[in-house]
Design a protein that fits this description.
The protein is an alpha+beta fold and 145 residues long. The protein has one domain: Gcn5-related N-acetyltransferase (GNAT) (Aminopeptidase, 3-Layer(aba) Sandwich), CATH 3.40.630.30. Helix content is 31%, strand content 39%.
């Protein structure tokens, strides 16, 4: 089940974020953005009463940007990432968005392949986007018609 995130989900979302990325959001930033930033939307995937995935997007005007999307390492390969992405695209359409933007590590082939499966196209490469590791990122866009 995918639902809007609540404050009670914050510890679990932070745990998944921290285990999934080498430059995760801090817990303080996650909570501050959740409570104070009305442009951000937070959704979680709940399975058997446990949050096992989530995404955070910004919705400004007719543009949606994916800030983060992640699935618990023990639940990868179960279609949860696809379900979250399908929900995200449907949500963006319902908000009359014209495009969805994101950055993905050029080394994260699983994520890039998933995004491409759902119609995202690589627009450009951002050199040294992930400063701690020196990794590049793809700018990817999906146009919604």
């Amino acid at each position: 089940m995918i639902r809007e995130m609540t404050l009670e989900d914050a510890d679990r979302v932070y745990q998944i974020e921290n285990e999934s990325f080498f430059e995760p959001w801090s817990k303080k930033s996650l909570l501050k953005e959740f409570e104070d930033n009305s442009f951000l939307k937070h959704f979680v995937y709940e399975k058997d009463g446990e949050v096992v995935g989530f995404y955070i997007i910004s919705c400004i005007s007719d543009l949606v940007e994916i800030f983060t999307i992640a699935v618990d390492k023990d639940h990868r390969g179960e279609g949860i990432g696809s379900a979250l992405l399908e929900h995200l695209i449907a949500f963006a359409r319902a908000k009359s968005a014209s495009e969805i933007w994101l950055e993905a590590s050029t080394r994260n082939t699983a994520a890039v392949n998933l995004y491409q499966k759902y119609g995202f196209n690589i627009q450009s490469t951002r050199k040294n986007y992930y400063q701690k590791t020196g990794e590049d990122a793809y700018n990817m866009i999906r146009t919604l018609l």
